[in-house]
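Tutorial, part two.
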Amino acid sequence: MRTALAAAIGLASIAAATTAAAAPAGAAGCTGCHPASAHVTSPVPRLAGLDRAAIVRAMQEFRAGQRAATVMDRIAKGFTDAEIQAIAAWYTRRR
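Running the prediction step on this input gives:
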């Protein structure tokens, strides 16, 4: 289903799907909207290659309701601090 949704909005790529398979728990779901590669065009912010601390801070702000969001505030509430750290570390290593 995630792949169908990504294809429908122009985000699916074989490289992103392959990279997503090695993602930590939670990050595989993130790649439906946030590509796992900095080289993929996306209507949502690209997280690949971003600073780890910036990703963590954004997720914590979404989770606390301190950052404006359409759906990320609800999604972020489902992640523990450890999962957020792992997702941020994984996206930081993507190029």
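Helices lie at 2-8, 14-21, 27-30, 52-64, 72-76, 81-93. In part three we will examine how such features are distributed along the chain.
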